Structure prediction request, 163 residues.
Amino acid sequence: MSSIQIIVGSMLGGTEYVAEACEETLTELDFKVDIHLKPDLNNILSNTFLSNNEQKKHSDLPKKPLWIICTSTHGAGDYPDSIKQFASDLSHCEQDLSTVSFLTIGIGDSSYDTFCKAAKDITKLLITMGCTEIVPLKTLDMSEDIDPEELAQQWISLNKDLL
Ligand SMILES: Cc1cc2nc3c(=O)[nH]c(=O)nc-3n(C[C@H](O)[C@H](O)[C@H](O)COP(=O)(O)O)c2cc1C
Prediction:
């Protein structure tokens, strides 16, 4: 079992429901999950690398640490307030993140030219910081009549063997 950190960027709360739906699916799949509605990089790093140490004690439970980013986009392609500090801290992080794998779910509205830009930007930033994207960005378009929680859960289930 790998430990998964779900990192949430939301302004109005909708993306929190999507993240919690992902948490539910992952828990059903028997993953250990921590969800961060107000992500703090230091806290996430200590969970990530503590989990690593724990895994070393259990050699039958190996796996790289995994982060799942769920973020909407606000303003004119900006990060939501809840994830701004995390993104800034991440860009200055000096810790080696090369063992961290991640995937991103972007929630946005395609009527904006900057569709899901925050999710695209954080994906680029994580790659710049040495992390490995294991599944290409999943975007959910709220201008369509969709159930974003259901779609996110289906996407997690589809990719479960890569986690
Ligand atoms: C003021 C405002 C600005 C927005 N700007 C963008 C944007 O630039 N790109 C985009 O894809 N969606 C944009 N959206 C759509 C939101 O990302 C979308 O409504 C999302 O579901 C909000 O998620 P949240 O409830 O977690 O904040 C904007 C929405 C609002 C209200």
Q: What stands out?
A: The chain has five helices and six strands. Residues 41-57 form the longest helix (17 residues). Residues 10-15, 72-77, 80, 107-109, 112, 114-117, 142 surround flavin mononucleotide (CB under 6 Å).
